[in-house]
Specification:
alpha+beta, 2 helices, 24% helix
Length: 136
């Protein structure tokens, strides 16, 4: 399952950080050093729930569900439109697809959470699941 979780981060890096949103070195990942820039920046958190038996048989399937949350922070005085555009772009790269053993469900619409210190925060929640076959 570690490979699949890493693929979520890799997909985000390739398509969002170094891709369409051009956020090079402006994304904070779990367990990675990060220096907060002055302008727009994003935090990606990948959370999982417990793993449950999904199918029975000699090759049983276990399913782990989770959610990736992209939190976009934009300076308070900047236009909210920019944060929403980034949120919609992120959403488009994770919308109802299966890649590298991860099935992404429908991401949330941009969620405006309001002011956090000197930033305005907009979140996109990306639900996903990972199925793994366990040979008994």
């Amino acid at each position: 399952m570690i490979d699949q979780l890493n693929s979520i981060i890799s997909r985000f890096q390739n398509l969002v950080e170094f891709g369409a949103c051009d956020l090079k070195n402006k994304v904070q990942y779990d367990n990675a050093r990060f220096t907060q820039p002055d302008g727009i920046w994003v935090r990606l958190a990948v959370l999982t729930s417990e793993t449950l038996q999904w199918e029975l048989g000699s090759e049983a399937t276990e399913r782990t569900e989770g959610i990736a949350i992209a939190s976009i922070f934009i300076p308070w005085e900047k236009a909210l439109k920019n944060a929403n555009e980034i949120a919609i772009e992120i959403r488009s790269h994770f919308n109802r697809i299966s890649v590298d053993g991860v099935t992404y469900r429908t991401p949330s619409a941009p969620q405006n959470l309001g002011r956090v210190d000197e930033f305005f925060q907009v979140n996109v929640s990306i639900p996903f699941f990972i199925d793994e076959v366990v040979v008994i």
